[in-house]
User: What shape does this take?
Amino acid sequence: MSPGASERRLIFALDVASRSEAEALVATLHPSVGFFKVGLELFVSEGPDLVRWLVRKGLDVFLDLKLYDIPATMRRSVAAASRLGARFITIHDTGAGAAAAREGKTGSRLQVLCVTLLTSVDARDLGASVGLGSGGRFRDLEDYVGWRARTAVSNGCDGLICSGQNVRRLRRELGPGPLLVCPGIRLGGDRLDDQKRVVTPFRAVRDGADYLVVGRPIRDAADPLAQARKIVSEMDRGLQAR
Ligand code: C5P
Assistant: This one.
């Protein structure tokens, strides 16, 4: 991330149900924010027209659909997303589905990001489903996240969705290549909502994150634009502290 680039590295999650709410938030935040995430709620409600509208406005779009399906469906869905003009799309599969997603985006500027582990899941939740610690396949949560990250990257993913808590180690293990995109961002004193593995914008960027995804702390703020600007300035400080 180059100095002064923080505005373009903050991705606002348009977690609303209607086009009118999305348009109002874009009007409030642009041009301080130029990258917008369309997730399941908005995509299911408003469909690809909303994505085309954002792209026509010259905004970057992160299509957060967290795809997980058979390889043929992954390839074709990612190809469809690339025709829409999205910059990022998320998938859940680290293996054959990731390789198929890579094929689907061929020739476009779309970048495929694999979810390592939802930031609403912590070691306790994961231990119950995967098996961590002595006798388990993975030593701890970071070990599991590292395994998913390495597998996804070796199958052609351009980057990873991860908690800011994992960034330092992933950057060390994977080098400068893969994009590291972090949700679960909270300023000191913010409500956690359903997130469990949160960090501040300062820490995530200082430790090596390329992009931060922020939703409720901006959407629900009394002054969303002021809140976005505060986050951008923390990101700038994090960059300087690298
Ligand atoms: O409101 P908040 O800032 O917690 O929103 C985080 C956004 O990032 C949500 O849109 C959520 O769907 C998304 N996300 C996440 N954890 C992941 C992947 C995506 O929170 N691992």
The pocket of cytidine-5'-monophosphate is lined by residues 13, 15, 39, 64, 115, 118-119, 161, 183-184, 193, 195, 213-217 (CB under 6 Å).
